[in-house]
Design a protein that fits this description.
The protein is α+β, with helices and mostly antiparallel strands. Helix content is about 35%, strand content about 25%. The protein has one domain (about 1-220): Gcn5-related N-acetyltransferase (GNAT) (Aminopeptidase, 3-Layer(aba) Sandwich). A hairpin with a 7-residue loop joins strand 1 (about 1-5) and strand 2.
């Protein structure tokens, strides 16, 4: 598998890794988000929406997760979105430079039409759709103790075919550089308690636990 990190400039950095499946060399690109990626990234969000596993059969509305966890980043922070492309999108990282400003923009422009589309009671109680409609209508405020030192935040999701090959690390490193250049000193993320594989990955990437709860934890690190 050949891996190319495609920057905004014409110059690209190349490195090669062995293809563990034995299908020979295959070109994989880490590239900036492009218009037209939206549906594929929404689909990746759904297919990794069960603590990294496929949540396709768990939602009546397959776009609901993407509307919350992908769409606003593509709308308000497209320069901080990067995609793994092996002929089709296979993963992404999405970032927001300033969580407080990002959430304010969403509250003005993104959440209101979604709340009209998904009013309370849109789905049967106890379903995952109903849970995320509640999340949509009851947005929490950013934790001042977290955003003081780690004002940026990120979401990252990779399909199984893109995992275990260093591509997640490549995405994080690409975003850290972009956030640092944008003036963000630190970045945080949320991860479910059951997603132990992701927690171990973030720890290897230099993230430390900032806050812990029974359902998960908030982790953060400097952008340098």
């Amino acid at each position: 598998m050949a891996v190319v990190t495609e920057p905004s400039s014409p110059t690209a950095c190349h490195h090669r890794t062995d293809d563990p499946i034995g299908r020979g060399a295959r070109l994989v690109i880490i590239r900036p988000y492009a218009p037209g990626d939206d549906d594929a990234l929404y689909d990746i969000c759904l297919r990794t929406g069960d603590n990294g596993g496929d949540a396709t059969g768990q939602f009546a509305d397959p776009r609901l997760l993407g509307e919350i966890f992908v769409g606003p980043y593509l709308r308000f922070e497209p320069s901080l979105a990067f995609v793994i492309d092996d002929g089709a999108p296979a993963g992404y990282v999405l970032g927001a430079r300033d969580t407080v400003e990002f959430e304010a923009a969403c509250e003005r422009e993104w959440w209101p039409p979604l709340r009209e589309k998904y009013p309370p009671g849109s789905f049967p109680a106890g379903t995952r759709d109903a849970h995320y409609v509640e999340v949509l209508h009851q947005r929490g405020t950013p934790d001042p103790a977290v955003v003081a030192d780690y004002p940026a935040h990120l979401h990252i999701d990779l399909l199984p075919r893109a995992q275990g090959r260093g591509l997640g690390r490549g995405l994080i490193e690409r975003l850290l550089t972009a956030l640092h250049e944008a003036g963000a000193p630190g970045v945080h993320l949320g991860v479910g308690a059951a997603n132990t594989r992701a927690i171990a990955f973030y720890e290897r990437m230099g993230f430390r636990t900032l806050r812990r709860s029974p359902s998960g934890r908030t982790m953060g690190r400097p952008t340098t």
